[in-house]
Amino acid sequence: MKDRVSQLCEPLIVENPCVRLRYWQLITNKLVQCNELLRWCPSPNCSYATKAIYGETRLIRCKCVYKFCFICNNDWHDPVKCHWLK
């Protein structure tokens, strides 16, 4: 996938490092938003994206050690179903 992103985005003719960084942040955010298997970790101080694997439980353990439900993006709430939290 990285090669495909590079093909879509290169050559990047931006010399300002702040603008370049913001550009790549927007590209990354769009990739996470468009992929149903990816989610941003909802922990307030975390910037990791996580990936679910088909057939896996709803529990996601981020690299930051935060545990959350992939379905509803809330704190891990087993055995309570997501719809009961609403």
UniProtKB/TrEMBL annotation:
The keyword Ribosomal protein appears for this protein: no
Keyword Zinc-finger among UniProt keywords: yes
GO molecular function: transferase activity; zinc ion binding
Keywords: Metal-binding, Repeat, Transferase, Ubl conjugation pathway, Zinc, Zinc-finger
Pfam family, one: IBR
Signal peptide positions (record): none
Domain RING-type intervals: 1-86
Domain of life: Eukaryota
Protein name per its UniProtKB record: RING-type domain-containing protein
Biological classification of the source: Eukaryota, Metazoa, Ecdysozoa, Arthropoda, Hexapoda
